[in-house]
Specification:
The protein is α/β, with parallel strands linked by helices. The protein is 50% helix and 14% strand. The chain has a single domain (7-211), classed as Rossmann fold, CATH 3.40.50.300. A six-stranded parallel beta sheet has the order 2-3-1-4-5-6, sandwiched between helices.
Length: 212
Amino acid sequence: MALPYSYITIEGNIGAGKTSLATRLAEKNNARLVLEEFAENPFLEHFYKNPDRYSFPVELSFLAERFSQLKEVLASRNLFQSEVVSDYFINKCYIFARANLQPEEFDLFMQLFKIVESNIPKPELLVYLYLPIEQLQANIKKRGRTFEQEITDNYLKSIDKSYFTFMKQHRKMRTVIIDTSDVDFVNNEDDFLRMEELIRAPYKRGITRVKA
């Protein structure tokens, strides 16, 4: 059975399980999978060590990479994989820039972002995976990416805040916030099926909050 939305974005804080869920959802439903190529960003590791110096180049680099990838994928859908599932959307650039950049840098960044955003379709459904900070940190430690190990609780809180501010400002989008604190959709098949059921549900435009 095809997914009820042609373009679904799975979003969430660092360590929320975006890539794992997007991958399983796309594979099961024969949808085209789009994964962020964060490892290709030459500034990311430097950013975590020295955010004041590298915030602006890391955000510009992500903007260029995400725009290039999404424009190519969304312009080349085919009949056999008409649905797209992604583990990020273009507005992630705005959300992280808001959290990371100084006001003058953010103003300059937004001049470029507005041009890019106007050329990328919005997802039909935005799924935000919510996890408490302590569970995010546990997931970050477990996957063991060296450059992520110094991420602070305060930084994760600032990212959550930026996402929620964005969602409140864009109530015309169809957004579902799923509290995943009591499920393990990576290792438990029943939990994954529950997540799929929630993603397949009919949602009106606006923000819907549910618990998995």
